[in-house]
Amino acid sequence: MTSEQITIGKSGAPPGARPRWLKFIRKYYIAYLFIAVPLLSMIAFLYIPMIISFWWSLNDYSGLQAARFIGLGNYIELLTHDKVFTKSLVNTTLFVLMGMGIGPTLGLLTALLLNQKARFQTLFRTAYFLPVMTSLVVVATIWVMLYNQNGLFNTILVDLGLSRVGWLSDPRYSLFSVVIASVWQGFGFETVVFLAALQSIPKEFYEAAMIDGAGAMQRFWYITLPSLRPVIVFVYIIGIIGSYQVFDQVYVMTSGGPVYSTSTIVYYLFTKFRDLRLGYASAIAYILFAILVIFSYLQMRLSRER
Amino acid sequence: MRAVSKRPRHNLRRSLIYLVLAVTSILMLVPFYWSVVTSFKLEQFVFTNPPQWWPNPLTLHNYLSVLTNIPFPRYFANSVFVALATTLGHVFFDTLAAYAFAKLTFPGRDRIFFIMLLALMVPFQVNLIPLYRIMAILHWTDSYAALIVPNLTSIFGIFLMRQFLLSIPNEMLDAARIDGCGEFGVFSRVVLPLALPGVATLVIFTFMNTWNDFLWPRIVLNSETLFTLPVGLAQLQMKNTSNQAQIMAGTVLTALPMILVFLFMQRQFIEGMTAGAVKE
């Protein structure tokens, strides 16, 4: 005990005092220790790769030879010369528009039906929600079989006296076929979210409206919809952000074909990665990022307005 | 008079609702049913007109072939191992960090948390390619480490758990500290047990995402012995498009574990999936 105090005393500091940095560490080290792994993981696996990726996007880089700086060359080529990228961008946007047009609407309709205090509510809900739990690869594999030239859908069409449809082989229908499979997989999520939101609307609102003589349509329009607004914003933004990243279904069902009719942004990025055009693929990733940032910003604005 | 006339209309409306619910539910289940039925058919009866709604003859041949000719048991073991390891990491690291962000004060806390929230906006595709190179430099490509280590924590998990821990009263933590608990003791003896419902949500969310993950495992794995179920299934589907019955057996085996867990823990699943949507 004494020897330590003596050495400190010799240096002129008051006895018993410790350097400030040591005090700081003693007081806070445990908190920093608790966040250390997520923090380092975020820096090593997210922020550093993100910066590297941005640098690569400004380079002609294959991963094999040294990178060659070309400024905005990749971006210019993507946006002005690359027809397949433009096609992928349009396809993805169409995928988002169709999916978001159908999915949340189906979700809201089923939630409204389920909310009618229906018996077997859990049973029905399970049926809608089951595909949400299922991996997209599984879903895509099942739908490839249903869409087969001699598959169940075409068999039914033939039985009805109609002709077969090239669901995935005809470029006019392929993207829409992928949309249908994706909506089937995903809308149960929206059902469940809307149902939870519907159940949290106070009953008094409806009772008061009934006393005032409001009809069913009016109650839906003036009570249900406004109460659901924050959830609707959430569902659409999350849905748009997720749909813009569509990949698994495309990979399994069509590999982007036929004639690029189902090529999407991330699928195209994947093919460029496979072709070792790493700089070019990074630029695609950053264009996707820019699109998503716009929607994230929109969400922040819209959910703050509550 | 009115009461009398209202009744039948009410019943009609109810029956209509049930009818719509029943028909749409059955339509939702048809693709599942069709894949299960197909998996028990002989190859030549997969695409018949009229369709075979029940396998005749019923065969286990496809399952035997998937389990012996293709390393599906190995895919299954890989999926279980990776999902469990990742989930354990999340429960420990996410909750620990969430505790620090929710209940401890330290310089830079809010700034660091904000930087983490910003990172939530970055789509995985942006860091995908450099991450692959980092794995290559570490000699981790084509290994379990590449699947597990970059995914040991998640910012969303920290955010979720922080929301949960904020509701724990500080007095309980102070009481434990007075009783001589260190911060880690407070965490493991007081915070973790109180946060169990949140942990259940986190477990389900993480396990499901890892189990179903496709893009990253598809890119980072080459050896068939390391494939997870979705990667193995996608490979099976692309390799022999001729035998749909066998592919369906693989599909059923891939989907079944998740569906079984879901049926037993439905409430937690739905809470886990909708967390953040309604609660805020």
Any overview of this molecule?
The complex is a heterodimer of chains A (about 300) and B (about 280). Chain A has about 300 residues and is mainly alpha-helical. Chain A has a single domain, classed as Orthogonal Bundle (MetI-like fold). Chain A has 13 helices and two strands, in the order ααββααααααααααα. Chain A has a two-stranded antiparallel ribbon with strand order 1-2. In chain A, a hairpin with a 7-residue loop joins β1 and β2. In chain A, α4 packs parallel to α8, α4 packs antiparallel against α10 and α5 crosses α8. Chain B is mostly helical. The radius of gyration of chain B is 25 Å and the shape is globular. In chain B, about 40% of the residues are buried. The interface between A and B is large, with 92 and 92 residues.
Task: Provide keyphrases for this structure.
heterodimer, A: 306 residues, mainly alpha, MetI-like fold, disordered N terminus, B: mainly alpha, 2 domains, 14 helices
Q: What's the main sheet of chain A like?
A: 2 strands, antiparallel
> Ends of chain B: how far apart?
47 Å
- Class by alpha and beta content of chain B: mainly alpha
Please mark out the parts of chain A with pLDDT under 50 across 5 or more consecutive residues, or reply none. Answer: 1-12
Q: Kindly give the count of domains of chain B.
A: 2
Radius of gyration of chain A: 28 Å
What percentage of amino acids of chain A are in beta strands? under 5%
CATH architecture of the largest domain in chain B: Orthogonal Bundle
Straight-line N-to-C gap of chain A:
62 Å
Give the oligomeric state of the chains in this entry, treating copies of one chain as homo and distinct chains as hetero: heterodimer
Biggest chain contact? A-B, 92 and 92 residues
Q: Quickly count the helices of chain B.
A: 14
Q: Estimate nothing, just give the exact number of structural domains of chain A.
A: 1
- Main pleated-sheet profile of chain B: none
Q: How many DSSP E strands of chain A?
A: 2
**Estimated structural class of chain A:** mainly alpha
Element order of chain B: H for helix, E for strand: HHHHHHHHHHHHHH
CATH superfamily of chain A: MetI-like
